Amino acid sequence: MNRRICLASLLSLFAPAPTLALDAPxxxxxxxxxLRSQYGLPALAAAVVSGGAIVARGVAGVRVHGTEIKAQIxxxxxxxxxxxxxxxxxxxxxxxxxxxxxxxxxxxVLGAAVPQINPRLAAVxxxxxLSHSSGVxxxxxxxxxxxxxxxxxxFNLTALRLKTFAAWKSHAPQTPPGAAFHYSNFxxxxxxxxxEKAAGRPWEALxxxxxxxxxxxxxxxxGPQATRGRFDAPVGHRVDDKGAITxxxxxxxxxxxxxxxxxxxxxxxxxxxxxxxGWNAGRGKRGPALVKPETLARIHAPHVKTGKIPHPRxxxxxxxxxxxxxxxxxxxxxxxxVLQHNGSNGxxxxxxxxxxxxxxxxxxxxNFPEGKADEAAALAMERLYxxxxxx
Length: 391
Description:
The protein has helices at 7-13, 29-39, 84-96, 106-110, 119-122, 126-130, 141-147, 157-166, 185-199, 203-212, 261-264, 270-281, 293-300, 372-388, and strands at residues 19-20, 26-27, 43-50, 53-61, 76-78, 221-222, 236-239, 245-248, 266-269, 304-305, 321-322, 327-329, 338-343, 349-355, 360-366. With 391 residues, it is of the alpha+beta class. The two termini are 37 Å apart.
C-alpha cells in the first residue's frame, strides 16, 4: 500500500467505506422480487452507489431453492470473475512498492521457482496476463485436468499454483503476446503466482488484508458463500440439461477449485460489493489509498480490443476493450464506454458496472447460473443505471 507520511494520506488511508445516503436509499425489494419471480431465480440483490453513498439497495427471494429461508441484505453472494479486478489491484500495489513491474515477465519472476519455461511463454508480461492478451488460452481440457488434480489434497495453494503452472510450462502462447484477446483463467493463476512470489505471501492473505480489511468489507471472504452446516447465505445452484435445479450447499462442489482464487473465488454482500464499486467509481480518491491514482487509472484503461464476440450472452456487448480485470464497454443505454464485468462459477452470477465519469456504480448478484439469471441481472443493471445516471 502507498503510505505517504502526511495528514491527508493518513486520513484517506482510514477513510470509511461508502455509507448509506443521508436520505434513505431507495428500497428495491419489490422491484427485484418481481424480476426474480419473472425469471425463476431463487434470490436476486442489487445496489447503486453514487458519490460514495449507497442510494438504492434491495434483495428478494430465498437462500436455497425449494425452501422459505429468505435472503437478507447482508447475505454473502459469490462474485466469480469479478474477483479479477481485485487481483489486478493487488498487482498495482506491488508495482507502487517497487516489488513488481507491469512489464515484469513470467521468467523474471517465476523462472527460478519453475525452471525451463517455454521461452515464448517466459517472455509474457504481468500486464499481458492481467489484460488477457498474453496468448495463454481460455480453459483447455488439459487445464481443466490440472485444476481438478488430486494434488489439491497435498499442497498449500501457493505451492499448488506453482506446481500447476510447472505442469503447463512447456506450452507457447496461442497467439503473439499483446496481439489478441483470450479470456484466460489460467493466465490469472500465473499472475497470482507472480504476485505471491513478489509479495512473499499467499494471494488469499493479500486480498484479505490489503483489500477486504482497508475497504471495510466485513462480509467478504473466499470460496463457497454459506458456512458449512448452515444456510446462512444464498447458496449456488446447478441446472442440468432437463432444467432440474440442485442447490450446491457446501464443500468443494459449491465453488471452483481454490487454486483459481486470483481468477474468481471471492464472495461478499451486495452492500460490500457496492462499496468496492464506489471506491473504483471515485477513482480511489476518497480513500483508502490502496494504489496511486495513476496506477488505478492504468488498471481502468483499455489495453486490448476484445474483437467481435460471437453469440454474446444477454446484456453483454458484442465487442469492446479489456483493461486489467475490467471490461471497457459501450452499451446501447450508456453515453460512453463504462467499466463492466460479469462473474460466475457456474452456480452463481454477479455483475458490476462502473461509470467513473459520473462517480456511479451498479452491482447485481444472484445465486443462480447464467441464462435466465444473466437476462434478469442485465435488465436490472440497465434499469438502475438509466434511473441514476445523469440525464
